[in-house]
Amino acid sequence: MRICTDRFKDRLAESVILVMIQLMHDTPNGVQEFFIKVVPIIYTDIRGRTVHSDQYSVTEHFKKSELTPLDSLPGVYFFYDFSPIKVIFKEEPISFLHFMASVCAIIGGNFTIAGIIDSYI
């Protein structure tokens, strides 16, 4: 199974780089199947710029014909599955108070873990 995703050249996706694969098989007859799943994505950065893109995954499967060559014809099949769910990434600024609460939670968690470890020792 090979997973392919959109890759962003910079923080805002101006272009998409697709992963290319080359397949070689020992059997002359067979069926090559590709299952392609596509999920739409909307990315909005902190300045409000929006990029509409797609994320996809590809799974390939090869089924060889082991009986006679006339039992099945060789072929390549593409099966597309478009997701009805849209993924939305949105950057939002956090307040200083939220940042300080997160820092205090991390420090408090460290003290709690240290206390648990100290009680066992």
Automatic annotation (TrEMBL):
<keyword id="KW-0812">Transmembrane</keyword>
<keyword id="KW-0472">Membrane</keyword>
<dbReference type="GO" id="GO:0030134">
    <property type="term" value="C:COPII-coated ER to Golgi transport vesicle"/>
</dbReference>
<dbReference type="Pfam" id="PF07970">
    <property type="entry name" value="COPIIcoated_ERV"/>
</dbReference>
<dbReference type="InterPro" id="IPR012936">
    <property type="entry name" value="Erv_C"/>
</dbReference>
<dbReference type="InterPro" id="IPR045888">
    <property type="entry name" value="Erv"/>
</dbReference>
<keyword id="KW-1133">Transmembrane helix</keyword>
<feature type="domain" description="Endoplasmic reticulum vesicle transporter C-terminal">
    <location>
        <begin position="24"/>
        <end position="118"/>
    </location>
</feature>
<dbReference type="GO" id="GO:0005783">
    <property type="term" value="C:endoplasmic reticulum"/>
</dbReference>
<protein>
    <submittedName>
        <fullName>Probable endoplasmic reticulum-Golgi intermediate compartment protein 3</fullName>
    </submittedName>
</protein>
<feature type="transmembrane region" description="Helical">
    <location>
        <begin position="96"/>
        <end position="117"/>
    </location>
</feature>
